Amino acid sequence: MIICPGCHTPVPGEDKFCGECGAGLQAGSPGSSSLTRDALNVTEVKFRLAGIYYKKGNIKAVIDMCRQVIEVDPNHQEALKMLSQAEQDQPEDTDT
Q1: What is the b/e burial string over 45-57, where b = at least 16 CB atoms within 10 angstroms of the residue's CB?
Q2: Which residues of 63-76 are buried (b: 16+ CB within 10 A; e: fewer)?
Q3: pLDDT 10s digit of each residue in the chain, 96 long?
Q4: pLDDT at position 2, please?
Q5: Which of 83, 59, 57 lies closest to 71 in space, CA to CA?
Q6: If you ran DSSP here, which 8-state letter would residue 71 be given?
Q7: Angle between the 42-56 and 59-72 helix axes, to the nearest 10 degrees?
Q8: What pairs with residue 11 in β-bridges?
Q9: Which pLDDT value is given to residue 95?
Q10: Helix ranges restricted to H, the chain
Q11: How far is 53 from 13, CA to CA, in rounded Å?
């Protein structure tokens, strides 16, 4: 999957245009499921960074990154799920 640079909708990697907004897409190499640099937007970079912070155990940073993602895209389901999980995993004596 790639992310449409126009509307940020996930689109199959083999598509040449976004089915949601019609924007032209630059797909990766044939059969590649990785996102191209042009398709990565700031929101997705922050979400991926939140995942890295999660793996490192930095729950406060996870919560901060997820909140930034949700501020831009309130319907970002993965960020909403990660935020919920991080808030549950957060030690009680740590401020958010």
Answers
A1: ebbebbeebbeee
A2: bbbbebbbeebeeb
A3: 788 877 888 887 777 888 878 778 765 444 444 444 444 578 888 999 999 999 999 999 999 999 998 988 888 899 999 999 999 998 876 555
A4: 80
A5: 83
A6: H
A7: 160
A8: 2
A9: 55
A10: 42-56, 59-72, 77-89
A11: 27
CB-neighbour burial class of residue 36 (10 A; exposed 0-12, middle 13-18, buried 19+): middle
Q: Where are the domains of the chain?
A: 1-39, 42-89
pLDDT at residue 66, rounded to an integer: 95
Q: Which long-range contacts (CB under 8 A, 24 or more apart) does 3-12 make?
A: 3/35, 3/39, 3/40, 3/41, 3/44, 4/39, 5/38, 5/39, 5/41, 8/41, 8/43, 8/44, 8/73
Run of H or E including 10: strand 10-11
> Contact at 8 Å (CB) between 62 and 78?
no
Token look-up 């401020």 returns: 95
